[in-house]
Amino acid sequence: MRVFQGSAAVKPLELWQEVTASPPAIVGVDTETPSLSDRSLLGLGLAFGQGRNFYITADDDDFPRALRVLRDPAVTKVFHNAPFDVRLLRKYQVDYSNIQDTAIMVRLLGEANATLEAHSWRVRLQTTPATQLMAEYKAKDMTQIPPEAVGAKCCRDAEATLELYHKLHNEVDHALYDVDIRVVTMLETISQKGLALDHPLLDEVTVYYKQMADYYKTLTAGYGFSVSSPWQVGYTLATRGNFLPLTKSGKQLATDDATLSELDDPLAAVVLLYRKYAKMLNTYLVPWADQPRAYTTFHLDAITGRISGTSAGANEPDRNMLNLPKKSEMADVEAGRVKPVRHVLLPDKGEFTKGDASQIELRLLSHLSGDERMERVLRNPDGDIHSDTNDGMEIHNRYIAKVFNFAMIYLANDKTLARQIKTRDYERVAEYRRRWMSTYPGAAAWMERSQVDGLRDGYAHTLFGRKMPIPLDMGEAHARSCSVNFIIQGSAADIFKRMLLVMTPWLDMIRLPVHDELLLDGCANVPIEELARVSPVWTPVKVEHQRRWE
DNA sequence: AATCATTGCCC
DNA sequence: GTACGGGCAATGATTC
Asked: From the CA of A140, how many Å to the C1' of B11?
């Protein structure tokens, strides 16, 4: 079926024949899917100008003809949130080298809400969110809405996207926008590659985790509660005489790791062990069991400009691999009874090359603040920042110094610091904080200025000028943290994405970008000099070759 | 069936 | 008495 939502002056059939015969230079694109979880393609909306648009369902005989427009690298395809559409169009093998993304443009203007509906006013068009359409038709998903209505919405969205592109094209900072759009294209290529799975090892690890999870679950069976329910865990443990504090919201009893570890009750320990195994089992091991490779879909919509990883809907196997467990603190791994989960990822070429922008966030804090002591230590290739902090604070505990260094980037409060350094002596925490600030007075002053600026302006800016809205509606303390952290995290993301672009010649080898770390398949000769030049801050990249991802 | 709440993994 | 930043996802409980 084809739907047309144009002006009286444009004849749908003529438009269709015109654009499929000779594709235009630029097209606004929108896709429709049954739901966010079922991301199969219902139909495609294309817009070529005001009132010039059509929608075609994926089951139409002429659909392949419409696809030609998307497959043509000479046609600029404008999406609103390209990573989403490009991912679901993957199986139709569309071109994604020549794309634009109006959602990225809008975010670069400093907008927290980058939905199309929130910005279509800019081009004097009214778009309706899918949720609203579904409510109007009392539909539980898009398949229950008449295709004519879906098509009309899709046409409007595609047209709004195209018009938004024309409107914002000259408003955005292209130094920032061009990086993001090129990164989006790279990320789709990286996502398509995925990583090989070592199935014999995966099976081995899975069997072990299953055994352990089952074992700990049976240990709880006699107590009449479900281990995987925090509510029931809290109730059961409290009934057995344990004191449990309330959760943050105050609606339940807290049963998190920190809380349960404090208890003497053996049942609490069993609950924690069960959770450890069950989580990995359900999130990665079981879903990977019948997959040849492991994939991650990437997004570029984080407020600070960082890359994030996600699944790709219920009908695709993709998992977020950016949070794959790293610490092999589990006793079984330590004792050699089982391999860490990361080890089931196999390099195609026998080894991985890993590049790590070491201590990029502290380097940024030092550079942005101009703190002399911190800069001096970090510029020294043999310098050890945490030891220096330890010396400056005179605490004789490098671990505590390290905790403080990272806590400062996040603007942690005394309570959090106290918990992390395992003390209840708040006066000591406050004293340490004073010592940190007098060790690095430049950094302390910059952090204070950043908070004042953030609270006053409602925005923070990265080193490269990316504008990030500060959430002012979640309390002053949160806004203050964001005012400091966004600058550091966002600047690190700016640098990392530019490094990723430098790595374009190695694109075929890139497997996973993980915030400040890049995993490559095979032995790569990483251009560390060129990578370093990307950043105005000295940001050395440490390169390692590994048989498995460590 | 959707949304909230909790928990836990990453940088 | 005390909000630590950014992400994503699985689970169960609650609400519609």
From this structure: 37
CA of A183 to C1' of C6 (A): 19
Nucleic strand B near CB of residue A76 (< 7 Å): no
Identify the residues numbered 202 to 241 in chain A whose C-beta atom is closer than 7 Å to any atom of strand C.
226, 228-229, 231-232
Of all nucleotides, the one whose C1′ comes closest to residue A309's CA is C8
Question: Straight-line distance from CA A36 to C1' B3, in Å?
Answer: 15
Nearest nucleotide to A482 by CA–C1' distance? Answer: C5
Nearest to A295 by CA among A201, A189, A203: A189
CA distances from A501 to A181, A496, A513 (A): 11, 9, 12
In the 476-515 segment of chain A, residues within 7 Å (Cβ) of strand C are 477-478, 481-482, 485-486, 489, 515
Instruction: Report phi then psi at A135, rounded to 5.
Output: -65, -40
Whole-number Å distance, CA A300 to C1' C8? 13
A248 Cβ nearer than 7 Å to chain C strand: yes
Q: Which residues contact A42 (CB under 8 A, 6 or more apart)?
A: A31, A32, A33, A34, A57, A58, A142, A143, A147, A150
- Find the Å distance, CA of residue A258 to C1' of nucleotide B7: 11
Q: How far is CA A291 from CA A86, A197, A342, A484, in A?
A: 22, 8, 16, 42
Give, in Å, how far the C1' of B3 lies from the CA of A302.
22
**Which nucleotides of strand B are protein-proximal, with an atom < 7 A from a CB?**
1-3, 5-11
- Report the candidate in A523, A522, A524, A543 with the shortest Cα–Cα distance to residue A532: A543
Counting Cβ atoms within 10 Å, is residue A228 exposed (0-12), middle (13-18) or buried (19+)?
middle
Can you tell me whether residue A164 is helix, strand or coil?
A: helix
CA distances from A529 to A19, A65, A377 (A): 47, 47, 21
* Tens of pLDDT, residue by residue, chain A (550 residues): 767 676 666 667 778 888 888 889 999 999 999 888 888 899 999 999 998 999 999 999 999 999 999 999 999 999 999 999 999 999 999 999 999 999 999 999 999 889 998 898 899 988 888 888 887 887 778 888 888 888 899 999 999 999 999 999 999 999 999 999 999 999 999 999 999 999 999 999 999 999 999 999 988 888 888 888 888 899 899 888 888 888 887 888 888 888 888 888 999 989 988 988 888 888 899 989 989 999 999 999 999 999 998 888 888 889 989 988 886 556 776 677 788 889 999 999 999 999 999 999 999 999 999 999 999 999 998 899 999 999 999 988 998 999 999 988 888 888 888 888 888 888 889 999 999 999 999 999 999 999 999 999 999 999 999 999 999 888 888 899 999 999 999 999 999 999 999 999 999 999 999 999 999 999 999 999 999 999 999 999 999 999 999 8
Nearest nucleotide relative to A326: CA against C1'? B10
What does DSSP assign to residue A253?
Answer: B
Nucleotide nearest to A259 (CA to C1'): B7
Tell me how far CA of residue A232 lies from CA of A49, A228, A236, A262, in angstroms.
58, 8, 6, 18
pTM of the full predicted structure? 0.94
* Of A476, A536, A488, the residue nearest A516 (C-alpha): A488
